[in-house]
Amino acid sequence: MTYSHPKLLVAIDCLVFGYDLSEESLNILAFQRKVEPYAGDWSLIGSFINEGEDMSQAARRVLKQFTGLDDVFLEQLHVYGNADRDPGGHVLSILHWSLIKLDDLHKETAEKHGARWFPIDQMPELVLDHGDMVQLGMQKLVTNAKTRPLGFELLPEEFTLPQLKRLYDAIYGRQLDDRNFRKRMLSTELLEKLDKKDKSTSKKGAFLHKFNKEKYEELAEKGYLLDLDVK
Amino acid sequence: MTYSHPKLLVAIDCLVFGYDLSEESLNILAFQRKVEPYAGDWSLIGSFINEGEDMSQAARRVLKQFTGLDDVFLEQLHVYGNADRDPGGHVLSILHWSLIKLDDLHKETAEKHGARWFPIDQMPELVLDHGDMVQLGMQKLVTNAKTRPLGFELLPEEFTLPQLKRLYDAIYGRQLDDRNFRKRMLSTELLEKLDKKDKSTSKKGAFLHKFNKEKYEELAEKGYLLDLDVK
DNA sequence: CTAACAAGCGTTTTGATAACGTTTAAGACT
DNA sequence: AGTCTTAAACGTTATCAAAACGCTTGTTAG
């Protein structure tokens, strides 16, 4: 080690949004803190970063521990750096966020670790500044959903257009026009229609689609800007 | 201290954009690194965060030291958290960015500290991952300039519409249509026209304007979204 | 065979903006 | 004094995208 300077405790906290397709509800993962101060209070999932550990690796480690998941959407979001934000000591927290599709398996994995999924409108009080983190994450979800293909991270590989539409309803907190929504989505030419129907929500059934991520990323490289801001 | 866990070195680095109105050029502040490894190489300005010091305070401290400025646009931008990003040791860097108006005084203050202002298209090679930081900052400047009132941070209190237009030309890297630009800017009703003219660039002179920041922030609170994406 | 209903498709209206032309103010030049 | 020059300021039209809304289709349940 070349540098000589006091060091800091650095934590990563992770705001995980999980969409439950069967209930069509957007949820956030919280867990009961095990260390003092505030042991037993609800908080986001998190961990200190270890010496020599990449920050992104620490984030993946935490997410894996509480959800069992690898290879899902996981990005840094914001740094909380006030020296007095945690009465237990000067801890810098780097908030991350993750988007996953929720199923019963994840719910079990969570419970095993003292964690629970809460619908976004039924969050309990959170410890420290974790309430602010949730608020920021909700804002970012809404704004980013308009310009990035985040919706597909919250749904299974195959989904119907009505399902996708109701997901965006949940994110934006209002009813979109299904006809304009469909038109906009299809106009991107990023969805592949399959020859299968899902009949879980209607007699007629709705065609399943897949999001062509490769095509999107190729276009994005060339400067393509997605715009999913529909009324 | 309640927690027992290994700590990390945490630095803040600051990408400072300075707009020189007289030369109508956008610049970035770089300085010659004083510590090994890579002493003498160009880098962004930065510092380690001290024990008990707020991150934002550390950022302000660095900016003040190299520019003499307080109370200017300064925000966190991105965390660089790879354990091996610095061969001198595991140092987490929290990139910040700042936007200021450049004048001769700031150039002198910079030189006193071994720092220099470089036009954005004439940046030298930077140390470590600081080149990535500049690239990210440039991207963010372009995208954020479309939805936030960043331009006014780079200009003096009073400016003319042609000056503002040429600033955005520099940011976007292309010539905007002056008539559409003016219309869009005025349509926000966030500019106050003064009874003074600036004649530095024409015989006729151009009316000076002020940006009504209070009005903008009031509107922004209520959900107003600025849109300065003009052709 | 018909009722019910979500899914899917289509048309009209509206409004924003890109593209471009014209007028104005003031110093420079004769 | 009158004309020229030039950036600044103002205005108009054509184009296109999206908001608003109506209609048809496919399937099952009764």
TrEMBL record, chains A, B:
CDD domains noted in UniProt: NUDIX_NadM_like
Annotated signal peptide: none
Boundaries of every Nudix hydrolase domain copy: 7-140
InterPro entries in UniProt: NUDIX_hydrolase-like_dom_sf, NUDIX_hydrolase_dom, WH-like_DNA-bd_sf, WH_DNA-bd_sf, WHD_NrtR
The name this protein goes by in its record: ADP-ribose pyrophosphatase YjhB (NUDIX family)
Organism: Marinoscillum furvescens DSM 4134
Species classification: Bacteria, Pseudomonadati, Bacteroidota, Cytophagia, Cytophagales
